[in-house]
Write a structure and sequence with these properties.
heterodimer; A: 6 helices; 22% strand; B: alpha+beta; Aminopeptidase; 8-stranded mixed β-sheet; 8 strands
């Protein structure tokens, strides 16, 4: 049974839950697999710790919580400090490299890949598509889901009128992730 | 076709077709030809003297920099219309884009201006802009109607603001289209916040 445990962590306002939701939708709705999403956020609308637990599996999911993540997608240093020690020994950390310094705490055999997602999002025109850049980075770096499925999940998830910019953000992250994944 | 959907074919009301594509450096000479072919009446109130190589060099530099994004319409190999989105990449109006539109006189009234303007409005939203403005003089009623169909409304009227190329003073109408609600919806979506029902 292939079960992949993913934790997306960052701060409220970064679109952490939407990023997790897109990964889950791409798996469950557009890839014919199973997925579960658990979301956790602080009491403030902005700036408090926020995380999403996503399970992607080939079989029905009996237990929807992440115990030992295979993949971490991290957008804040606090999230790195909190979740890095939970990573599986051969796990993968994908992080925003202008917001996170992956120092220590990672298992020796774990891999980590960084992306300047905030800068990419700002260059595309809107900082708030940072989470979509990260969803694309996840897709390109992990090969867990097809880019077609994630594209459909993005179109299905974002407000009308914002689809094109979000898809550009997705492709920016995807291509960067593909480049790093094939280089390592 | 790229992700913005260009080039695309636009059907005009008279049954003819034009190809609308994103302008690049290779379109420079044809653009200059297009603007030089416009009659004086059409160039009366243009912001720049678009018939000079100097204008073209500045325009292409803006395209390269991303400070301008332009669509050109072609029929029979010649440019017959052009719409450009200008934006400030820095500063307090970086959320605002200005749209300028020109259509060859023999193509007017066929929906080409609307097709070009609609394409540029979409590009502006895709660039994350929140507001678009367009400037008109009082005689440009057809162009104003075209922009009104795209959601633009008159925000200001400045008396004797424009000196046309014959030296006459004209009133300037400032039209704007505020699309910030589109991005407000996205902002809300990435809020990562779910208030309790009793709040």
């Amino acid at each position: 049974m292939a079960r992949t445990e993913i934790r997306v962590g960052g701060l409220g306002g970064q679109g952490i839950i939407l990023c997790g939701s897109i990964i889950g939708k791409a798996a469950a709705i557009y890839s014919g697999r199973h997925a579960a999403l658990i979301q956790a956020f602080g009491p403030e609308a902005r700036g408090s710790a926020c995380s999403a637990q996503v399970i992607v599996s080939d079989e029905a999911i009996g237990y929807p919580y992440v115990r030992k993540p295979d993949i971490l997608v991290l957008l804040s240093q606090d999230a790195f400090v909190q979740f890095a020690p939970q990573l599986k020994p051969d796990g993968l950390v994908l992080y925003e490299n202008e917001l996170v310094q992956p120092e220590g705490k990672l298992p020796a055999t774990a891999r980590s890949l960084g992306i300047p997602a905030t800068r990419f999002a700002e260059e595309l025109g809107r900082r708030l598509v940072l989470n979509i850049v990260m969803a694309g980075f996840f897709t390109g770096a992990t090969n867990l889901l097809s880019i077609d499925a994630v594209e459909k999940a993005v179109i299905d998830s974002v407000p009308k009128g914002t689809e094109n910019l979000n898809l550009k953000a997705l492709m920016k992250g995807y291509e960067y992730g593909r480049g790093l994944a094939t280089a390592t | 076709m790229d992700r913005d959907g260009f080039p695309r074919i636009a059907k005009l009301k008279d049954g003819s077709s034009v190809e609308i594509s994103l302008a690049g450096a290779a379109d420079g000479p044809a653009l200059l030809d297009f603007y030089r072919s416009l009659g004086e009446e059409d160039r009366l109130v243009l912001t720049d003297d678009v018939t000079t190589p100097g204008w073209l060099a500045r325009f292409l530099a803006k395209l390269e920099l991303g400070a301008a994004t332009s669509l050109v319409a072609r029929a029979n190999g010649c440019i017959c219309g052009e719409a450009t989105l200008y934006r400030n990449l820095h500063g307090w109006s970086r959320h605002v884009g200005e749209i300028r539109l020109s259509v060859a006189s023999d193509r007017r009234g066929q929906g080409l201006g609307y097709a070009l303007a609609a394409g540029v409005v979409k590009l502006a939203i895709d660039l994350g802009l929140e507001k678009m403005v367009a400037y008109f003089v009082e005689s440009q009623s057809a162009a104003r109607k075209t922009f009104e169909r795209l959601g633009f409304r008159k925000e200001a009227e400045l008396a004797r603001q424009v000196t046309d190329i014959r030296g006459a003073k004209r009133d300037l109408f400032v039209y704007a289209n505020d699309v910030s609600h589109i991005w407000a919806a996205m902002e809300s979506l990435v809020g990562d916040y779910q208030p309790h029902e009793d709040q």
